[in-house]
């Protein structure tokens, strides 16, 4: 058997989809956002491309003709769309007359969802690919390497390789086996239960009802309506949408089973929507071992209705998750208000390597202080549990 060797690809389309997805299915924490079709759609649609500041490189490790490890890597000239914020680091470089960009990021663009980033058959292959990543960054003279929202196996390998770890906080809901939404509410404190019922009543009293569609049952018209809502939300905040309509067209065509769409209607007219991703669709030897998970992703509204956001993004998806046995709903980045809807704080981790020794030392000291603050924040949030049995 020959020695392992590394290949650099400019597109995931150069890599066999079955080999990539088979490797993903072997991971302890796979997600639909690391599927070959998802990453290919980002590239082919132009959503994550050199034009948008995401120059793709896909790094693979081979032994003979067997794919042993792989990961997406993007060379970037900005820090948008990452959700692990390093603007202060970039400013510090600039103040000292140094260039922070370009930098290298191992991540899924625009997607703050924890999961496997370095797909590997075993720990040795993961360590070898990670070593190759650092060597490639040194050779190409990028300022730094950042692995964002990694799984435990990724983070352990990064720590062994000497990368610095950084923690952030997200909010996830866990299904405790409730028989229905009312049983779930019964486990919340009186104040939280009352508030949720009041919020849901406001939406009903406004004459709003919901319908949902999954996978191939989502019509083109519904996808078009969703995109109107999604794009409008971004533009209302003064930004163009990260993902274009062609990206979602490709999602509907290549991995429809991974999407769940809720549409709010009033007097028969659609007025809002929320899109949820599902972990369905993985294939491979270990795919059946993974529980069904849901990920809150995008929402938008064409009309303003009090509490409609909470109904579309939390209460309707939570009810669906309970009815369909979904293990967990991940609410995405930030959002302390999610705790009132029973999404609890969870620490997520990224790993960082900086080429400049003095800045690496400074960032390491900063991360030590930041980590203490993050832990205090999580402890503080834990004292505010919305569940009744912890009152």
Characterization of this structure:
It comes from Variovorax ureilyticus. 37% of the residues lie in helices and 25% in strands. The protein is of the alpha+beta class. It has 2 domains: 5-169 and 347-381, Gcn5-related N-acetyltransferase (GNAT) (Aminopeptidase), CATH 3.40.630.30; 172-345, 3-Layer(aba) Sandwich (Aminopeptidase). The radius of gyration is 22 Å and the shape is globular.
Helix content: 25-40%
What pattern of helices and strands is seen along the backbone? EHHEEHEEHEHEHHEHHEEEHEEH
Q: Which stretches are poorly predicted, pLDDT < 50 over at least 5 residues?
A: none
Give the biggest sheet: 13 strands, mixed
Q: What is the total number of structural domains?
A: 2
Q: Tell me the distance between the termini.
A: 61 Å
For this structure, what is the CATH homologous superfamily of the largest domain?
A: Gcn5-related N-acetyltransferase (GNAT)
Radius of gyration: 22 Å
Indicate the structural class.
alpha+beta
| Count of helix runs | 11
CATH architecture designation of the largest domain: 3-Layer(aba) Sandwich
Q: The CATH topology of the largest domain is what?
A: Aminopeptidase
Which CATH class of the largest domain applies here? Alpha Beta
Mean pLDDT across the residues is 95
Organism: Variovorax ureilyticus
Protein name: GNAT family N-acetyltransferase
InterPro entries: Acyl_CoA_acyltransferase, FemAB-like
